[in-house]
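Progress against Task 2.4 (sequence-to-structure conversion) is shown through the following example record, which the project officer requested during the mid-term review.
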Amino acid sequence: MNGEERRGRIIQLLKDNKSPLSGTELAKQLSVSRQAIVTDIALLRANGADIISTNRGYLMHGGKESRVFKVRHEDEEVEKELTCIVDLGGEVQDVFVCHRVYGILRAEMHIRSRMDIRRYLEDIASGKSSLLKNVTSGYHYHTITAESGEILDMIQERLREYGFLAKLQDYEPVDFWGRE
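Structure tokens generated for the chain above:
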């Protein structure tokens, strides 16, 4: 299998899997080194493939709608917030804050199931770190993806019902990533 065929196979493997595939796992399946996979991923991205790197491996992002929600809640309500999103079919891509001094501080999450929520909460509970939202008095943002805008609308309404949605302030950029 040449490099072009291998990259096509990587795309197909990522599309067929809903959970992340590690570089090691891809290397094993394709009988190449992990470094060859890293190079292939870079080439695929350079050619427009929407591949996301997570702490658990690579994911193909594609065909989904996304929306940024500004939210605020107490630490004890994190599970409720995340569960309402994934139970309605959303995936929490990230968490970020818009700090007046430091600017945008962002962390990847890729939470799509209750199991992911449980792992995340265990990681927070076992570490010496606190939730990112706490540097801005609880205000934070999530980029949420879903199969349709209707699902995102349902998520937005549920977040509103729970009292989690927060209003944008004048100093906050509407386009957080500088895209048109």
